[in-house]
Write a structure and sequence with these properties.
There is one protein chain. The radius of gyration is 21 Å and the shape is globular. About 35% of the residues lie in helices and about 15% in strands. The protein is of the alpha/beta class. The chain folds into 2 domains: about 180 residues, Rossmann fold (3-Layer(aba) Sandwich); about 140 residues, no CATH class.
């Protein structure tokens, strides 16, 4: 195949490009040249800021190819960006994949979220910046623009929590680093385990997401699809036990219930990444039946944890800010704060 990746040098796009090139596909990367510009010298690089007037058109006109079998858009946050891509690419692409988000759904109170669940709406004229309040609605508007512009050639992909090496959010990575500290420092050997042990957890290694996306490019899949993992339901207890077994077998878990954590002002998802209280746990209950039916395969959680810990130790794994992307908050409890919470829990 000949693939156009809008993005391609950070996280999911990086894994997409790496796997596509390894498989022998021709790859064109369209990006701003800001992040990891030296990656993938064997690919064609088109340098453009898609928000600058005329830049995208000029870059595409200078491409060596007159067309691509598929375009995978990892960097669209505003519907105007998708509309412009549709206008300029037109019939030059076969399939168009929009990387959207599970955050498009209006509510997570149900037992499971499938692709027909109602989505958020947003006033495009008012939503001029990507924030926590506008992100989901803007992604939903991007989906509408993709379907309007590309019709049956559009595949709308709604990833859940993407994890693994090169993750710029630092969320899942914090747990890998936390258990690595537990293995190295006896004073940090006890790890706070949040919420109900049987609460659900969903996440997907970005490398597995990339493999599935490339398979869909070959199959020309269309429509909307949730994309997360693992293949079988995972509980917080299993998540924590796998991290403990993989990274710090001698560590100890201290389970602290959600009412206490919330009363202490602990912020789910950010101060204790991945964990969500029961009222918000629908985020971790997405129906992935369609993804599985179309070939999704997820590697063992232990492998993702080990690879993430090794990458973080070598490269550093904290949040990375990027212009034009949603702001990335700090993640994880400071060691002193975590220790104080465990002590307060025991003394309650």
């Amino acid at each position: 195949m000949h693939l156009l990746i809008l993005g391609g040098t950070r996280f999911l796009g990086r894994h997409l490009a790496d796997q596509a090139l390894a498989a022998g596909h021709q790859v064109t990367l369209l990006h701003r040249g800001h992040s990891n510009p030296g990656l993938f010298p064997e690919a064609e690089h088109l340098i453009a800021d898609r928000d600058q007037s005329g830049a995208l058109a000029s870059a595409l006109q200078g491409a060596s190819s007159s067309g691509w079998d598929a375009a995978i858009d990892t960097s669209a946050y505003f519907p105007r960006q998708v509309r412009l891509a549709a206008e300029l690419l037109g019939d030059r692409v076969g399939q168009y994949q929009l990387i959207s988000s599970i955050s498009v759904y209006a509510s997570f109170e149900g037992l499971a979220i499938d692709e027909s669940t109602p989505r958020l709406t947003v006033d495009e004229a008012q939503a001029t910046a990507v924030t926590g309040a506008t992100y989901g609605g803007l992604k939903a508007a991007c989906e509408d623009a993709a379907e309007e512009g590309f019709g049956e050639r559009a595949l709308v992909v709604r990833p859940g929590l993407l994890v693994g090496p090169w993750d710029p959010t630092g969320r899942f990575t914090w747990w890998a680093e936390r258990f690595a500290r537990a293995a190295a420092d006896e004073e940090q050997a006890e790890v706070l385990a949040p919420g109900h042990p049987q609460g659900p957890v969903q996440c997907i290694d970005a490398r597995d997401a990339a493999a599935w996306l490339l398979h869909q490019a070959e199959a020309c899949t269309s429509g909307a699809c949730n994309l997360t993992g693992p293949e079988e339901p995972l509980s917080m207890a299993e998540f924590m036990a796998t991290a403990q077994r993989t990274l710090a077998p001698a560590s100890r878990l201290c389970w602290v219930d959600e009412d206490f954590l919330l009363a202490q002002g602990v912020a789910p998802w950010s101060e204790l990444p991945v964990w969500l209280p029961a009222a918000s746990s629908g985020v971790h209950r997405a129906d992935i039946g369609r993804a599985l039916a179309t070939g999704l395969q997820c590697r063992p959680l232990a492998q993702t944890l080990a690879d993430t810990a090794a990458w973080a130790a070598a490269e550093g794994g904290g949040p990375v800010q990027s212009a034009g992307a949603p702001p990335r908050p700090a993640v994880g409890l400071a060691p002193a704060r975590e220790a104080a919470l465990r002590e307060a829990w025991r003394k309650r």
